[in-house]
Amino acid sequence: MSDFRSLLEAFDNKFPDRDYRIEIVSPEFTSVCPKTGQPDFGTMTITYTPDQKCVELKSLKFYLQSYRNEGIFYENVTNTILDDLVAVLEPRWMKVQADFNARGGITETVTVEHRA
Amino acid sequence: MSDFRSLLEAFDNKFPDRDYRIEIVSPEFTSVCPKTGQPDFGTMTITYTPDQKCVELKSLKFYLQSYRNEGIFYENVTNTILDDLVAVLEPRWMKVQADFNARGGITETVTVEHRA
Amino acid sequence: MSDFRSLLEAFDNKFPDRDYRIEIVSPEFTSVCPKTGQPDFGTMTITYTPDQKCVELKSLKFYLQSYRNEGIFYENVTNTILDDLVAVLEPRWMKVQADFNARGGITETVTVEHRA
Amino acid sequence: MSDFRSLLEAFDNKFPDRDYRIEIVSPEFTSVCPKTGQPDFGTMTITYTPDQKCVELKSLKFYLQSYRNEGIFYENVTNTILDDLVAVLEPRWMKVQADFNARGGITETVTVEHRA
Amino acid sequence: MSDFRSLLEAFDNKFPDRDYRIEIVSPEFTSVCPKTGQPDFGTMTITYTPDQKCVELKSLKFYLQSYRNEGIFYENVTNTILDDLVAVLEPRWMKVQADFNARGGITETVTVEHRA
Amino acid sequence: MSDFRSLLEAFDNKFPDRDYRIEIVSPEFTSVCPKTGQPDFGTMTITYTPDQKCVELKSLKFYLQSYRNEGIFYENVTNTILDDLVAVLEPRWMKVQADFNARGGITETVTVEHRA
Amino acid sequence: MSDFRSLLEAFDNKFPDRDYRIEIVSPEFTSVCPKTGQPDFGTMTITYTPDQKCVELKSLKFYLQSYRNEGIFYENVTNTILDDLVAVLEPRWMKVQADFNARGGITETVTVEHRA
Amino acid sequence: MSDFRSLLEAFDNKFPDRDYRIEIVSPEFTSVCPKTGQPDFGTMTITYTPDQKCVELKSLKFYLQSYRNEGIFYENVTNTILDDLVAVLEPRWMKVQADFNARGGITETVTVEHRA
Amino acid sequence: MSDFRSLLEAFDNKFPDRDYRIEIVSPEFTSVCPKTGQPDFGTMTITYTPDQKCVELKSLKFYLQSYRNEGIFYENVTNTILDDLVAVLEPRWMKVQADFNARGGITETVTVEHRA
Amino acid sequence: MSDFRSLLEAFDNKFPDRDYRIEIVSPEFTSVCPKTGQPDFGTMTITYTPDQKCVELKSLKFYLQSYRNEGIFYENVTNTILDDLVAVLEPRWMKVQADFNARGGITETVTVEHRA
After folding, report:
1. Burial of D93 by CB count in 10 Å (0-12 exposed, 13-18 middle, 19+ buried)?
2. Residue from C33, C51, C54, C99 carrying the catalytic annotation
3. ipTM of the complex
4. pLDDT tens by residue, chain F, 116 residues
5. Which residues of chain G have a CB within 8 Å of the CB of J105?
6. pTM for this model (two decimals)
């Protein structure tokens, strides 16, 4: 659980009888490497099937921006964002994929999934 | 159900014995954000297997253009277009995918499916 | 069945013991809209697993060119080309996909399949 | 001169001693064809060398959105946007390029230039 | 001079005091090879600086469609289209570029220019 | 079986306990059309799971070059290359895909598979 | 002049007799909008012909990172970076181009040049 | 097992209760052909589901760089890297894919998988 | 001068009063390396302004195919093709560009020009 | 001057009366950073107009490979390669462009020119 979870807001899903998919892509994610203090950059892709709640986009933007000056590892930030969103939205299914920019000529992608 | 459903026209499927797929892509969809009053832009992709009826393309164009000055959220417009088309065409299967342009650096895609 | 079916020629499949796939792409397909008289343009993709016969490419080219001045709807031309090819080749499996160019900002793809 | 010119706001160029270039791309421009009443879509690219004033981006967004329900021809809208911006900004040089989406399979680009 | 020149219609240039550029791209040009009788396909790009007249887009579409069943060589069709447009529009400058699809693995582009 | 099979050389697979995949792409394949005498060009893609033997790359290059002046149809050359490679390597699984360049505006791909 | 200028380090150009060009692209530039407090993202491209000094890349990285939490407008940051680099390097020629990501569907690029 | 296995370091997976996927792409892999002594270049893609341990990225970079002057065949290096990583990380699942640059106009990709 | 020059045929330029440009792209050029006997592949691009004569495309195709089994260096084949075409067509201007595929990871392009 | 200059071999330009251009692209250049000991990767593009001599491609490949384990800065390696090639070939004009891969999210290109 991150310190920023409370920033996330939800609105009622008006079509709960139907399984459908929402995909949100944020190519301007940035955080800080806890080892080197250097900024990391990446694309955060959140895909989910809502149950009773959908994430409010503006609140999600502020939530993701909160990591801007946080020192956190790739694997941790991806799992934490999934945990926060699952706690707030209780979706039927959710996937968070984080594609980080190359460092030292090497690129890493972390993909985490939750199933209700 | 939208106010524009009656704009949709259908013609008889001449090959009802065969399951086949029609995909229609409209990259010029635009509506208005009900919160900010700002225009939204996106690509609407409609894929379906017709049963007895196919959608007439010109009527679909006018139907989609009707949202031009409507204030409606992403999730609602996608589900409503599916509802309208399913009511008029009674397809064996249909999917509506809406890819909205980035707002605040964040892009959203909504994908809704119907199976007869 | 089109008027042009007799243009299609076949040659013997020399490898009938093996299930394999042939894909033919013709990006220069053109016919005429029966409503407006305006030319339509598209890409015709034919994929099949031959049984005893393969289509002769030059005859297929002439067959597809026969639609140049024909007034025919998207759904009809795609299904008719499949019917003609299935009748002449009796393939184990065949798919015809027609990707038509945008009209009024809207693009349509029709995909039809036959299984022996 | 358009009815919307007064929407444009400028701010002081803090580097008037230097000739430099600002390019603004708005891929979500839409107006209406005065003949058919059908919506037109395109990308508006504005490039200029400021003299004493730079255009304020948010006011430019509102200005461009004002054409949403206006009936106006390609050539006229491009020349009019240049006239309005030149009147408000008095730039050393300015170019407006409008790339309109295909209609009837045909695409048009209009490019207009002003030199002080 | 082609038989189709009379199809071209012009409208008054409302901005004759300004040198500006109009580019029209028609990726659905088709004619017939006079030698083989086989259809040719290509993209016709017309760029010009209007003087007193601009070409009306719908009439240009019909004009270009007239070549659909004409037997004419690459070099001739490109030069003839330039001649017809120059005669009707009397532009300050005009360029016609024809990019023909590959035949026998070889692609040809013809580019013709007129300066008043 | 081709005349060139003996050109193919194999080396021992050092990891026979593991199922893995090797994909070899040769975009410079050329042969001759037996009907017209005209050269054909294409990309040959060979994918396989080795059993006890892997193909030696240089010998494969010489083998594929042997078709340079051979008159052979698309379907035959693809099936023959598969037959030769299967005979020499006895793989657990193999696929040969041949993507030939457009002739008369039409492209053909042949895909052939072998399973031990 | 920015507060960060002193971060920039230079090394001696070993080839001062030759006019040559160095281009440095930093696609991970981020600052903050002074109006909205929202982060901006962009690509900073620095091109120059060195005289006696070249910029040390690591120091340039730290210099560009210093803007991470600074509130500064597009035009100002681009001109200021040029001023700082010119002061430290005294190049024969330098260009700074800043391509900022879309905000409200609108993209801005600022290009500033210095000539000794 | 390579001589470089000891270079690989692991850190504890903090989310062992969840099956998730990490993909690491290193497009700057280079080794030497043991036959010709010529350098080989390629992209190494490592994908895995961690169990108790994740690979430390910097140590992986040094590990992969160790092959820089090693003479080793495509199939061997791919299998050996998998063996080393499996020994150190004991992942639930892992795949190593090596895409080598063209030699003599021919490209080879080797894909190796491990399942716990 | 090559042995194949006599294969080139010309037809009369019907628009000799106008300077215009013809570009011919042949992406299926192949010859043989005189040193190694290995086939070379490349794209031959011929651009010219005709005077009294244009090259007949089919004859050009046969001319270029003649190099299929010829041993000839990159620089020589490019210059020789220019010499042959200039001798036959006497163009006002001509450029021949040969882009050869990579060998040993290295690509070469030769560009030769003639001005009357 | 590098230690490897003597590796470069030249052959006689058979067309010295004509100014023409040769471009050689080597996307597999690698050297070592003298500061960090880490490998650098890039694409070396050499363009020149030969006078009496052309560079022999295989010798150029060996020459470029010599930098594989050399510690040398971006600016130095680019200028040195130009110096070596100019000394050996005495070309009428030559340009060397080195595009290095990103390090720390920053990419550098060095472009050096020589004119006889």
Report:
1. middle
2. C33
3. 0.93
4. 899 999 999 999 999 999 999 999 999 999 999 999 999 999 999 999 999 999 999 999 999 999 999 999 999 999 999 999 999 999 999 999 999 999 989 999 999 999 98
5. 26-28, 61
6. 0.94
